[in-house]
Specification:
The structure is a single chain. The protein has 276 residues and is of the alpha/beta class. The chain has helices at residues 37-45, 70-83, 96-109, 140-163, 178-190, 193-205, 209-214, 236-242, 258-261, 263-275; strands at 3-5, 11-17, 22-26, 49-53, 89-94, 115-121, 219-224, 246-251. It contains 10 helices and 8 strands.
């Protein structure tokens, strides 16, 4: 399997399929590159080169003890992009991967001239945590609850998240998709409990405000109004305002995991933005 070794010796797994303009995908917590199946196959069929990696401690990448923070995540993504010499690339990040992609573009990809466009899907920026500067954010107790549930019974927690709020399968009239729930669980359990535990702090407490302000490539922000994981009002609209060339596309009633449940809608909108 293809791996790149980062400057601190961590092996990062990646997929690299097809030819043409590259699209690099950044997955959410606690998943893997496999969460992009619906997008990678779609864009491969439309003549693009598609790349996705497993974040350190996730999926098939090395289960290292340290470095589970946004700076390392972004540097690891840079290691993949540099190893593959990606140029004129579109970067698409979902949830935690949106934060990773934003920091990668601001700190690595843009200065190196590698990035054409950015897409943030149901992404964690600007910052999830409630602070004096972000009074509408989620209280720390929410994320303490995540840590407690993960430490107590990770396998059960990773069953509860996809069967409930991640895909809105807990909403009236929404039929659960058992295979999707099982695939989320499979991806999560492939990774390291340490990486997932530390990752909660990374995705909830990192402030991406300055990253967003520094990004000067065209950026599409996509967010569902019924996102129960990264609430719409404190994420998508705020990110779009901070970006120099940001466009917000809102999806009424869509869940956090809308790239899976509504792939046919999201893929067409992503394609239209990439071609614009």
């Amino acid at each position: 399997m293809p791996f790149v070794t980062t400057k601190d010796g961590t092996e990062i797994f990646y997929k690299d399929w097809g030819h043409g303009q590259p699209i690099m995908f950044h997955h959410g917590w606690p998943l893997s590159a496999d969460d992009w199946d619906a997008q990678m196959l779609f864009f491969l069929q439309h003549g693009y080169r598609v790349i996705a990696h497993d974040r350190r401690g996730h999926g098939r990448s090395a289960q290292v003890s340290e470095g589970h923070d946004i700076d390392h995540y972004a540097a690891d993504a840079a290691a993949v992009a540099e190893h593959l010499n990606l140029k004129d690339a579109i970067h698409i990040g979902h949830s935690t991967g949106g934060g990773e992609a934003a920091r990668y573009v601001a700190k690595h990809g843009q200065p190196q001239g590698r990035v054409a466009k950015l897409v943030l899907v149901a992404a964690v920026p600007p910052i999830m945590l409630k602070t004096p500067a972000n009074p509408e954010g989620l209280p720390i107790e929410v994320f303490d609850g995540f840590r407690k549930a993960l430490a107590a019974n990770r396998a059960q927690f990773f069953r509860d998240v996809p069967s409930g709020p991640f895909y809105n399968f807990n909403r009236p009239g929404v039929a659960p998709m058992e295979a999707v729930i099982q695939n989320w669980w499979r991806q999560g359990m492939m990774g390291s409990a340490k990486a997932h535990y530390d990752g909660i702090k990374a995705f909830s407490e990192t402030d991406f405000t300055e990253d967003l302000k520094a990004i000067d490539v065209p950026t599409l922000v996509m967010h569902g109004t019924d996102d129960q994981v990264v609430p719409y009002h404190d994420a998508g609209p705020l990110s779009a305002k901070l970006l120099k060339h940001g466009t917000l596309k809102t999806y009424e009633g869509f869940p956090h995991g809308m790239l899976t449940t509504h792939a046919e809608v999201l893929n067409q909108d992503l394609l239209a933005f990439i071609k614009s």
